[in-house]
Amino acid sequence: MTNKLFALDIGTRSVVGIILEQHEDKYHVADILVKEHKERAMVDGQIHNVLYVAELIQEIKIILEETHGPLKKVSVAAAGRALKTEQALVTLSIKNRPIFTEEDINRLELQAVQQAQQQLLQHKDDVKNNHYYCVGYSVLYFRLDGEEIGSLLDQQGDEASVEVIATFLPRVVVESLLAALKRADLEMEALTLEPIAAINVLIPPTMRRLNVALVDIGAGTSDIAITDKSTVVAYGMVPTAGDEITESLSDHYLLDFPIAEITKRQMHTSEEILIQDILGFDAYIPRAEVVKAIYPAIENLAKSIGEEILRLNNYVPPKAVMLVGGGSLTPHLPEELGKVLNLPANRVAVRDVNAIQNLTRAEHIPATPELVTPIGIAIAAQKSPIHYMSITVNDQVVRLFELKEMTVGDAFLAANIRAKQLYGKLGHGLSITVNGQNVFVPGEHGQPAKIVLNGETASTKTQIKNGDIIQLIPGKDGADAYATVREIIDEAAVKKITIGKEKYIIEPKVIINEKVVKLDTPIQDRDVIVVQTIATVEDAFSSTNNTKHLQQFSSYCVHLDGKPVYLPEFSSQLFINGKPGKTHYPIQTGDVITFEQITSPSAEQIAASLNLLLEEKVIVTFQQEKVELAKTAREFYVNGQIVQSTTTVPNGATIKIIEKDTGKWIYQDVFRFSTWQLPTAFKGSFTILRNGQPSTFDAEIFGGDQLEIQLSEIK
């Protein structure tokens, strides 16, 4: 049984009507009719004047009906140049979150697609296009903590980001198509996209695992679609196409634009080109010379298309490029495009109708690249038509344009469900200042929302169909940040040490908003916190009420004649972990502080340290007994008071030592230190001897002298 298909390709310059006969899996092109727009009714693939376009469609319909009978339904395509492509980057803090799951990645991608949609709405040209259908997107890269990574699955870190390239079709494009068809008394049987139409007939699904670019070069624009990994990953358009070549011919040879268009077509068939300029001169010019004249325009066209292909393909050349459309016949375009993409000549090729499998055509229909897309529209609309579908999202009915396998994520896009709604809110954080540094304590991450599709748990990637009911149950909001001082200070700020035999846990002094607080005090937003840590031995003694040791372990010093005199031999010794230390030495957790105490010295010890004697002493032998003679040589004053030689002198005291004028030792001085006396009632004479020699009581004596008084009693 033969099935007759009617399709329309509504382009910028013309409308192509095609009658296709289907017999099982084979197709026959029975008729094609091309009519050019009389006025500028189409701009960038969008119908700007529905009436003019409807009249042209009506005209084509009537002519074809004369041969092929009544035509009630038609397949059409949305122009590839109407597609909007946008890149978007989304970054998410994942600090203190569980590892990334597949659903987390899906929701992050959805957020990036919504970001791309928002960017479209911000463009001045698109202010009125307040709704778009997302026809597909591709992930350019994932990053974790700033480093590019293959996948975020099962990853943890501080920050995750994804950049996508997403393609959208403005809703108004579809609505204007429907309006034009209705005025021409036609019903839309099926709808497709022009790039998909060409791909469906030239690149079957078995080939789409290859990274291939298809370029449909029309009059005003060049439409691009790229396949990879068994799907169409990107769409694009450049406003450079066949008209650039026509204009170049017009400028160089002074041709009217319609004449330049005829001249351009002669280049495909003739070696001698007839040039008829606006001044009325005719000339036949060799094809090679004409090509040379317009070669800069050819290079510019190749450069524009090549750069857009690279951008859409992550700046990597595809494996091959297929060219269709009338502009693909531009001389030397495949070679120049190969240079831009760094591809060999046999990887860039023009494809015509003969490349379409299982297709025959009537004899009057040429096998040109121009007809690939119109034929593709008829076949693609039959094989993989795009329908509307109605979905209920949280009791709201949304209509989706079924451009691909639709998912829950697509339904959320259509229902304006923001990606942020897929997670509970992040709890409020605390912004504080600690010792002059700004510190942020984040709130708890929210729990993911639950997605229910027809009563069953689902994800954003779950496929949907017409009539499905989706419920989004909000996730639990994260708790606000809560922390005590103890939780935000460094663990090293709390020290465990031993002083002598006592163990101490020493906490830092904490001041919040100029008020001293304890470590377990909760922090409030905007608090200004000062943490004074215990850093030295001196700090440790002060905080543990051991201040009595501080003076003891400072260097022993007295002030003599207004100058400090340090006497380290009288300083007590401090030890940190068994090694000598000072009170200004730093301490760490686990340190053991011990000390060797020395009592304060006496006045005599200080004088001896200064090589001064407080007393002058000599020892002599008197009457066969040792006698020590002593007299004050210097007076010792402590803080203005005279003291004994045995008096203890405190650290830091002011001392004064005054020398006394001491005379010579004489013989009679010995009697002040000796207990010897003349016998009672002694009568007689005595002899004074010094070292066995006669002497006198006023004679000078020296230490070690032998002194003796010999008595001679009178009988």
UniProtKB/TrEMBL annotation:
What biological-process terms (Gene Ontology) are attached?
cell division
Q: Which UniProt keywords apply?
A: Cell cycle, Cell division
Checking InterPro entries in the record gives: ATPase_NBD, FtsA/MreB, PilM, SHS2_FtsA
Natural source organism: Solibacillus merdavium
Domain named SHS2: residues: 5-202
Q: Which CDD domains match?
A: ASKHA_NBD_PilM-like (cd24004)
Keyword hit for Signal:
no
Superkingdom is Bacteria
Task: Return any one Pfam family short name.
Answer: PilM_2
| Name of the protein this chain belongs to | Cell division protein
Q: Which PANTHER family match?
A: CELL DIVISION PROTEIN FTSA-RELATED (PTHR32432), ETHANOLAMINE UTILIZATION PROTEIN EUTJ (PTHR32432:SF3)
